[in-house]
Amino acid sequence: MPVKGPPRIIDSFQDALIGIATALREEKNMRIHFALLFLLFCASFYFGLDRLEWALVLLAAGGVIGLEMINSAVERAVDLVEPRFHPLAALSKRLAAGGVLVAAIVAVAVGSLIFWPKIWGWLR
Fold it and tell me: In CATH, what number is assigned to the domain containing residue 33?
């Protein structure tokens, strides 16, 4: 059997892209996040965000999507190790989901701080 060398960088990117595609295909919440991300980008272009605002929007959105993917990975790993109900397995899943919720709340706060003045000015 041939010895496998260290992974190439392209292999790492392919694995990551497969992970994103899998999350989009199999995780309802990820599809919701990406739909909201599309709307967020449309609003960001429409209101002409400056560089700092773009950076904050991207960091907040990326944090939510990244944590959602980690949450999905935790859920699958826990199910693999403990397919039956176990209080610690349930707690692990709840903690991961809580991390996504915290990130989502912060993202909404960031979005509100950035977009509310722009929407208010647009309505006037």
Answer: 1.10.287.3610
In a domain, 5, yes or no: no
Q: With contact defined as beta carbons under 8 Å apart, do 68 and 102 qualify?
A: no
Of 26, 53, 68, 82, which residue is the catalytic one? 68
Contact 58, 40 (CB under 8 A): no
Catalytic residue flag (residue 27): no
The reply to whether 6 falls in a domain is: no
Structural domain boundaries, residue 63: 28-123
Query: The dihedral of CA 115, 117, 120, 121: what is its sign?
Result: negative
Q: Which residues touch 67 (CB under 8 Å, ≥6 apart)?
A: 99, 100, 103
pLDDT in tens, the chain (124 residues): 666 777 789 989 999 999 999 999 999 999 999 999 999 999 999 999 999 999 999 999 999 999 999 999 999 999 999 989 999 999 999 999 999 999 999 999 999 999 999 888 888 7
Alpha carbon 63 to chain centroid, angstroms = 6
Global pTM reads 0.86
